[in-house]
Amino acid sequence: MFDYTKFDHVFGSQTFPYDRKSVQEIDAFRKSLDGVLFIDRVLKALGLTKAKTYPPKTENALRTLHQQLCEATMSTHHRLSIFYYIQLDFDTSQNREQASSRFAAASGVPKNYQIFMKGLWLLDHLQFEKALEYIAHPSLTTDFADEIVTALVRHAPDGDYTLPLSYFHTVQPILKTPDALHLLFDAMARSSITEALYFSRTHSEAIRGQLFRLLISSVLAAPANEETAARATELVGLPFDATEEAWFEEYLSQEDGKKLKHARDTLLMRKLVTGRYAEAVKDKNLGGRWGVVLEGVKSGLGGRAE
Which of 60, 178, 213, 287 has a C-alpha 20 to 30 A away from that of 133? Predict the structure, then answer.
């Protein structure tokens, strides 16, 4: 009968998977993930706080980790899930998925724990697209959602935020940290300004104001190109409510946003788009091409803009 307290029952006589190359690879993955793997977070959450418990560099170190897990105060399912994660490393070293499946069958580790740990293992190995199939599974809770969003956004290839946005829309997690929320919102704003605006409205007034300003800066601080011009055009045409209209003007005329390139142009365009021609032509600080445009507007109004 399977007994997880017995090392041989858990790991058997399999070849030790952590050679120098694999340990260096795991350390490189850890560095890429801002110094913390997801398995590090799991171990810490379950009370194993010793630095660099994973990966065990020798078989004796693996035996020590096994003993620590057996003696630690945690549920059996949590204990088995960590063993399962390690079995995934055995799979890789043997180039076949037998160690983890055999362990799962023998130990009875619940399927949703298998799914979650496989997702974390894939994240730790920077296999983000495949990881999404697991971490967004409907049987899972939203553990480590902030960290998952952060990893997916920061590793988005060439500004393609499909994966973090897919994770967010599928799982609908409540993010707990401002950093994760701002990263997600910036990714959303770079993908769809309109979607980002409506998302900002789902938050409290204070957070909503922060996100709204972030939306503006994400557009105006971007490198000048055709895409940025198109996004700026979309921005000035958004259906702001009265509060957002006030924030827009305050941010670009009085707050930090006034330092952004084209802040004044953007304010003017908003006035033109919303039909406030009289306000636009009264701006004495505008010249050059805008002066010509506004003179045309003024003439078109037949003096009514005075």
Answer: 178
